[in-house]
Amino acid sequence: MRPALWKRAISSLFDSCGLEVRRKGGLRADAFQDQVDFLAGKEVRTIFDVGAFVGDTAVTYAKRFPEARVYAFEPFPESFQTLKDRTAQLSKILPQQVAVAECSGLRRLHLTGHASSNSLMTVSSQEASQLDSIWFQNRGSVDVPVVTLDEFCEANGIKSIDVLKIDVQGAETAVLFGAEKLLTDRVIKLIYTEVICSRIYESPYTFSDLLTIMEKHRYRIAGVYNLMYFKRRAPIGQFDVIFMREDILTSSDTREQ
Amino acid sequence: MTKRAIQRLFNRARLQLVSTTRWGVQCEVDVNKLQCDHPVETVLDVGANVGQTATAYHDAFPQAAIHSFEPVPAVFEELKRRVASLSRVRAYCLALGASAGNMRIAMSDSDLHSTLSARGAGERSIEIQVDTLDAVCERLGLSRIDLLKLDVEGYELEVLAGAIEMLKRNAIRLIVAECEFASSPALTHTSFFDLHQRLAPWGFKLVTFYTDWFDPVHHACMGNALYICTNSYLSDGHF
What we know:
The complex is a heterodimer of chains A (257) and B (239).
Chain A: H1 2-16, E1 19-23, H2 31-38, E2 46-50, H3 56-64, E3 69-73, H4 77-86, E4 93-96, E5 99-100, E6 105-112, H5 125-131, E7 138-147, H6 149-155, E8 161-166, H7 172-177, H8 180-184, E9 188-196, H9 207-216, E10 219-228, E11 238-245, H10 246-251
Parallel strand pairs in A: 2-3, 2-8, 3-4, 5-7, 8-9
Antiparallel strand pairs in A: 6-7, 9-11, 10-11
Chain B: H1 2-12, E1 15-19, H2 27-34, E2 42-46, H3 52-60, E3 65-69, H4 73-83, E4 89-92, E5 95-96, E6 101-106, E7 125-131, H5 133-140, E8 145-150, H6 156-161, H7 164-168, E9 172-180, H8 192-199, E10 204-210, E11 214-215, E12 219-220, E13 222-229, H9 230-233
Parallel strand pairs in B: 2-3, 2-8, 3-4, 5-7, 8-9
Antiparallel strand pairs in B: 6-7, 9-13, 10-13, 11-12
């Protein structure tokens, strides 16, 4: 009885300062470390970084998974050049100057105030004006080549993707629509994707569509990260989520605690 | 210096400090943030158990009437005892479901995780009374619910099926529901996938997750998700 009492006293002390005491490992913090943990003992040879921007994530993946090749997709010429220069010495990173979506061809890439917000989707001017941020300012557009993941893998003889990271500013679901065969063949182990819930991008897809695909192909949510809110009282603006193929999750159940 | 020392102490104890002003840490704090223009007045606590949530809500929402529903008589007695001193909490020995009537409920050993769903139907079961959320609101004269808490061990969607009238009128502002972040046949709780698909058509948007209980083996298993009805908030232009 006594330890419970002092525990409660400490909690209420912190509570009055607006803090909460938690056991570590409860709240997910490091999405990359978790991916390493989740895939421990599994072969990780192929990583796709879709929406690589200037390569921060690609470099992180190359470090965390030294055995893997990292295909880094970035369509915007300036960002791609930086990505290429930065990773020139890293033979495991393979930059691809192409966008990824649900069908291949040539498509308009909408440019924004910050190149990391560039998207195949247009920015909603109404939402952007409310945010009052240069990040989403309209800066015109360029035409970029687009591939689907199914076609890219077929053309390059890639049989499986161990980690698929997607961060393409509102077009995440489109990437998965272009990976129908890979998903059906069950050759993608883990998907780490950004989810944009706000209507900042005029995407035809909603979070529900993404969940529908993931459920259809029997993926499970393995972690939720980096929750971001754009407006004071609005629902969640965006977050990252790790989906894992159900059988991979089940087979890793024997992992040590 | 002191901060660093405290940090080290916490690290050693495998504890961490998180700020409750951050979204997704404490549900009550987030609810008050969302309701800053309209203080929380009406709360339905469905699956009240012995009143853990009701007690927290009573503290956090000083103007709220909290209606707590717990169908298992033995658990209900304990609930009644614990909330007796809380003037704004009313407890009902009742389950909420898709339709009114009596139902058999499977009893687990602890009595804490009893469930109405067919999956759980086991050896030991008792009969309990069920009503719909719509009927209860009508009887109690509740025209609006500021917060609906659902923690009914896999029966969450059934509760919503009995709340169609309230949902149609956009009369439920916030819903916090327990769910499993999974899609598997072995599911014993409501899947987040199903919950989201059920709520989205009614104008609900995800506010935040409370993914506090990560199982180190099964990863993100359980958590709560907080939803806001954007239809009922449209007028204030925040969404």
